[in-house]
Specification:
The protein has 109 residues and is an all-alpha fold. The protein has one domain: AhpD-like (Up-down Bundle), CATH 1.20.1290.10. The protein is built from 6 helices and no strands. The longest helix has 19 residues, at 90-108.
Length: 109
């Protein structure tokens, strides 16, 4: 399984919503992300596109990091954001670009 960029999110909720976290761990990351029909890189691109389009900023931050871990380049992330600006709107694109900038900067520290 690939490195999870935001383990604290799940760890912080584990005691409060144990079944939810169990399903995330076992179904999403233990099964769906491990299926061979799509690469983790492709799954990351799909996920960041979906989260951006839905305006799910908190989850987008973690998945931007996961995308980098899964081999998506910074340029590809920015191109995805730019492409989606025409489909999901300028506000979602500007928010996603700002979050990506922050994730990229944190990785350089």
């Amino acid at each position: 399984m690939s490195k999870t960029p935001t383990p604290n999110v799940r760890d912080n909720l584990r005691a409060t919503a144990p079944k939810l976290i169990e399903l995330i761990d076992e179904v999403i990351y233990g099964d769906v992300w491990e299926r061979k029909e799509l690469s983790k890189r492709d799954r990351s691109l799909i996920t960041i596109a979906s989260l951006m389009a839905m305006g799910r900023e908190r989850q987008l931050v973690g998945h931007l990091g996961r995308a980098l871990d899964n081999g998506v380049t910074q340029d590809e992330i920015i191109e995805t954001i730019t492409h989606l600006a025409f489909y999901s709107g300028w506000p979602t694109a500007l928010t996603a670009a700002t979050l990506a900038k922050d994730v990229f900067a944190a990785r350089e520290e």
